[in-house]
Structures are given as C-alpha cells and as structure tokens.
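Project channel, design review

CF: Before we commit to the Rotaria sordida constructs, I'd like one complete example in the thread so the newer folks can see what an input/output pair looks like. Taking NAD(P)(+)--arginine ADP-ribosyltransferase.
RD: sounds good, go ahead.
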Amino acid sequence: MNRFAEFELENKDLQPVAGYWAYELVSLEEALKGFLSQINELKRSIKEAKKYCKHPSPHNLTRDEAAAVLLYTMEAGDHSFYRILNQVLRKEDRKEAIPWFSYLKLFDTALKKLPK
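CF: and here is what came back for NAD(P)(+)--arginine ADP-ribosyltransferase:
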C-alpha cells in the first residue's frame, strides 16, 4: 500500500495526544526500548537511522533527534515504523499512545527545530 493512500476516509473526531511534552528527552534507543521485541527489525532500523541521519545537522538537531525523524520516514513495507505509530495515533483510545510518549517527545522536539 502506498503511504499516501494509507489514510482512512472516515471522519474521526480524535482528541489530541497530550502529555508527552512533559517527558524528558532520552536517546532514540531508550525511547523505543519497549518496542524492540514487538516491531520487526526495529533495532536494525534504529542503527541505520543513526548511521545515515544528517549530523551534524544544519538545524542543530542532535543525532537522536535527526535519527528519530529519519526512522519515521524509512519505508519497510507493511511493517514500517511510521505505519505502526500512525495506527496507534489513529486509535480513539488515546491512552494507547502513552508507551510512545518518549519517542513522540524526541520526534516533536526535532520537528520544532526544522524550518517552517
């Protein structure tokens, strides 16, 4: 399935995912350690993202922040990281996103540093 055709054509009025901004910034490995046994090849993908991310970053992203963004954009078929995360973020039960808060904090911190 193409990533651009992946969205569901239904009107969901989801509450915002809130609370992750209060989490401390941690390394990418630390943010995702709870998912290593659940997501195929996640450890390898994290390693690749850290190896190939642009660092030093022209926008002052840390290596972990840059790798968090790169990891989200990496395509790996039906088991792509972004697909798994997006499925969680589309759920009506917002509590299901709580295990992802450390990653969301890292990802959001990186995105805020990028030019608009």
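RD: helpful, thanks. Residues 1 and 78 are 8 Å apart (CA to CA).
CF: The mean pLDDT is 91.
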